[in-house]
Amino acid sequence: MMHFVLVLFLALGLAKAEDGSHAWLRYAPVPNPNGYRSLPSTIVALNSSKSSPVYTAGQELQKGIKGIFGKSLSINDTGKGPSSVVVGTAEAYKKNYGEFDEADALDEDGFFLSIEERRVRIIGQNQRAALYGAFEYLSRLAQANFSLVSYVSNPHAPIRWVNEWDNLDGSIERGYAGPSIFFRDGYVMENVTRAAEYARLLASIRVNGIVINNVNANAALLNERNIAGLGRLADAFRPYGVQLGISLNFASPQDFGGLPTFDPLDPTVDVWWANVTNKIYSRVSDFAGFLVKANSEGQPGPLTYNRTLADGANMFARALKPHGGIVMFRAFVYDHHLTPSNWKNDRANAAVEFFKDLDGKFDDNVVVQIKYGPIDFQVREPPSPLFSALRKTNTAIELQVTQEYLGHQDHLVYLAPMWKEILEFDLRVDNRPSKVKDIISSARFNRPLGGSAAVVNVGTNTTWLGSHLAMSNLYAYGILAWNPAAQAEDIIRDWIRLTFGFNRQVLDTVTEMSMKSWPAYENYSGNLGVQTLTDILYTHYGPNPASQDNNGWGQWTRADSVSIGMDRTVKNGTGNAGQYPPEIAMMFENIETTPDNLLLWFHHVPYTQRLKSGKTVIQHFYDAHYEGAATAQTFVTMWESLKGKIDEQRYDEVLFEQVYQAGHALVWRDSINQFYYNMSGIPDQAKRVGNHPYRIEAERMSLNGYEAYAVNPFHTASGYTAIVTTSNGTVGTATANITYASGTYDLAINYYDLIGGKSKYEVLINNRTVGAWTGDLEDRLGHAPSIYLDGHSAARITFKGVKVNKGDTLKIVGFPNGIEPAPIDYVSLLPPGTID
Ligand code: GCU
């Protein structure tokens, strides 16, 4: 009986609790293993050295086949005979087996995969390519795709890196999944097990480089102990074919080396960098190179000495050149003290202004790494015009897997559709097809180096990114870096099969949720290209549109009482539209030809401006926010429909996040709508904004031990006001008579969950407890915390199916804790099915 249950369990793909650590490499049993009659009987890995990716490939094949089919295959490194899966480099294959016709078709890192009845050949142009082929074969098997095939797969571009913004103290800038897997207390960790597991994940999506530390770099990474640590990490990455890189601080020669200068044209500085570089290579012979953020956001750089950015980049290039290393030099250079009162100022112009005239002046082992849009990882941006301005310079695109402005992994936002829009955008350089994806490869400008980098920021959380569903973004990044022609929906379907198994409903539902998630997030955050509208001065998480304007950061919306948007036209604005090639410039210059979704990026218009849809800008804002927040509610019901079809741990953890997102989407909706209603004075035609018939405002309840509190920003509280306990030692009660008709309601309570306290709450009807909770989201969610009542800390809890009678007494008791004064915003009594 036990056996039967186990078999049934496995057949359904319902493994025991899963913590997410295996990500898409679970190798779960397939439902129809007999569909693959021709499973080879041995594994031949044509390299027996343990640090070799081909050796790793052999191990991985063994592990995968055991998991998927329950069969233990032996591995040897010399085997002949037809019934084997052979993995190796083209060179080793030829040595052992003679001819290999496809060798010439393989580019660097490319592989050949041939699956025949009883023979499988996985042949890489190099070692890691063979490992990529092994992962590809396993991915097919794990998805129960048993077709016989034979094909070559080559990468779109040579650079497929990830950037981790880890600090030496173990914290991670813009990381939402716990502390670093690389550093602790100022040094590289002794234990590199998890770092190796990460390299394995990356190899499976064909990422070939990791920059392990923050672009805001600490020069202490270059001390002896840390260089030894780099050696340990590189040793851990090497079996996976992943090369190590580091971010550098430009001022290191002075701050760390004790030189009087860090001028890139000073010969002593050159020598200093050459020595440091040599030292690194003597410990890490396959070191990938440096990533450099210079003269940006307060970081030092060559401009300090009136040298050009190219002078700065080339200094590192010279040091790396003899070793074959490369410099990823970031184009994210701008002045963050711009004067907002000058209509012509524009941060979006900075990259082209700094880099255009340097085209052709960079050494050939320099790659300029360009964020996908001209500002900073916003929910919608046009591609950076710099992609079209650099023709004689190697370029790479910088994407962000960590959801810095997009919900910190506590909101589901599947990013592949957004990345695809950028990669497929045709910049029409010289009136010729010039898609971004072809500019970052050699296709358009014939530059040999190029590709992609993604800021990932994994942490020690078992899920890697702090959320199971967010891992689809890391997966999609690798797939698109290898092949930008891949479709976002195909990628997510593969990822779901690998992550959750074969249930058709799971596949369709998670696909639907994922594909709707970016549009939904855009709808309930910043629309029409106005930017994300998150708080740019604090956590980059919750809503705070006012934070964009009137400061030097240059992420302006220029919203006033009648109009909104950045005028980036040439005729009347900052001229940014003119930085694009003529056909694109013309499109963005004119309101009529600018797509609605970028209208406010390029134009300053009245709130009453009509969109192509016929709606006004302001009504579009209102409608989009209602629509986006409504979509977020459906993610909960969609996910709930999968109960029993996914292991319990992941089901529960995702459900918790979706419920949280649904609540926070309402915070976004109301906050942004209130803000713009307040600013424009134009009412919502549908009369929803500011009109909430099901709400009981906490400040209107009768309070004991609680007092009203004016929340800042005002629009992050319903009615601008919440309640807090009168002291952090006072228990507060808020009571109200229920005036609604007797019936069954969903009782939703909006409260604020601050870091620095875990208040407890109880909600009672006629002194009967109907719900209780603790304000402990800081332990359960990964987003950057807040110590204030604001749009980051605002949250909702719902108790469903509560019976109330007209005239009953509703009471909330709040027990403050630490600095958290049990804050409450409002209570909603919602007839089932109502959202508000
Ligand atoms: C953003 C981000 C910073 C980061 C910077 C960068 O501004 O908020 O944390 O350092 O980008 O990419 O360099």
Structure description:
It is built from 21 helices and 29 strands. With 836 residues, it is of the alpha/beta class. It has 3 domains: 27-153, Chitobiase, domain 2, CATH 3.30.379.10; 159-495, Glycosidases (TIM Barrel, Alpha-Beta Barrel), CATH 3.20.20; 695-830, Sandwich (Jelly Rolls), CATH 2.60.120.260. The chain has an 8-stranded parallel β-barrel with strand order 7-10-11-12-13-14-15-16. Helix 9 links the parallel strand 12 (289-292) and strand 13. Helix 8 crosses helix 9 (309-320), helix 15 packs across helix 16 (504-524) and helix 16 (504-524) runs antiparallel to helix 19 (617-640). The two termini are 49 Å apart. The model is unreliable at 1-13 (pLDDT under 50). The site of alpha-D-glucopyranuronic acid has 8 residues, from loops.
Offer a few descriptive terms:
about 850 residues, alpha/beta, Chitobiase, domain 2, TIM Barrel, Jelly Rolls, 29 strands, binds alpha-D-glucopyranuronic acid
